[in-house]
Amino acid sequence: MAKKVKVGIIGLGFMGTTHYGIHKSNPKAEITAIADVDAAKRKGDIRRVIGNIGGGDNSRPLDLTGIKTYADGMDLINDPDVDVVDICVPTFLHCQYVLAALKAGKHVFCEKPLARNVKEARAIIAEAGKSDKFFSAGMCIRYWPEYTYARELYKSGKLGKLRSATFTRLSPNIAGNAWKNWFMDGKLSGGALLDLHLHDTDAVRFFFGRPLAVTAFGVNSISSDGTMDHVITNYDFGNGTLVAAEGGWLATKGVPFEMSFQIICEKATVLFNSAGFRIYYENGKVEEPKPANPQLPTGWHEELDYFLGCVQKNKRPDKFITLDEMLDSMIIITAEQQSADKRKTVKIKY
User: Fold this and answer.
1) Quick one: which of 152, 156, 145, 108 has its CA closest to 129?
2) pTM of the model
3) From CA 213, how far away is CA 183, in angstroms rounded?
4) Which terminus of the chain has fewer CB atoms gathered within 10 Å of its CB, N or C?
């Protein structure tokens, strides 16, 4: 049996506690350290942790028996008993922790978005590219069972030529859900455009390659610094197809989280939403695939399991996303912000 990978998690917010539970249940991983600025969380008390999707039982404390705890993430990075640093801190802190961890000779998994801006993203990609350790970012939709199944089916040619595709990601208002309400500070989070809508921008890149230009319309209603709280974007591939995505977190608290897509091709339409996952063929046949692995039911499970497996095998991760693709999605999302701000189409320079 392969040696367990020793994992240290920095940040025990919604994604940090989600990762904690996934690592705990994965036989490839051993959590050896956690770091958080909140003393209560360092004792396992996660009652104040709130998310916008799923939802574990945060009323029950984490069992941190045998796990070292740190108030400062840099101390965890310097712990020799940590192989992989799993970074789940607010977006504006990603770059400094990723660079420090890579330079310290650690494998690094960083929650999305990769960084707060393209300049920071380029710095991360450059450091990861020259490191002999592995790096990946939590673009979990690339690993989500229904999305990966649909992409493989589309790429196989069985669906025929693409006619249109729409991706949707809508969240209830998350104001007040996190440390110092950082999501609502656009300078720190990048707003819903960067923190939420990025998943579908990256899905567009994953399915169809690099768009040539974007035309985005957005509104800023609740977060600061002019970042988008709701956005609708058209991605131009220069071939006449309609590819669009919508994302936002303006809905009233309590509204169910929604993620969905509809891909219309010559021979079939692929539909994923809260009602299920179906493929409707032109001949009337309807399929309802069940692509999820019971042991790895979500994209979060898949991405972490894959990364741990790469570390165990000493094989650089490149199956689901490359360093260049991570950077591409940051460049595209930045063009969307520019398009919404300028109210005009923006050509993308990679």
Assistant:
1) 108
2) 0.96
3) 28
4) N
Placement of tokens 């923006």 in the chain: 346
What domains are defined for the chain? Answer: 5-137 (3.40.50.720), 142-298+329-347 (3.30.360.10)
pLDDT tens readout for residues 210-227: 999 999 999 999 999 989
- Asked if 20 contacts 62 with a C-beta cutoff of 8 angstroms, the reply is yes
For the stretch 71-90, pLDDT in tens is 999 999 999 999 999 999 99
Q: What are phi and psi for residue 296, nearest 5 degrees?
A: -135, 70
Q: How far apart are CA 271 and CA 262, in angstroms?
A: 5
Question: Lowest-pLDDT range, 46-55, 179-188, 264-273?
Answer: 46-55
Cβ atoms of residues 191 and 223 within 8 Å: yes
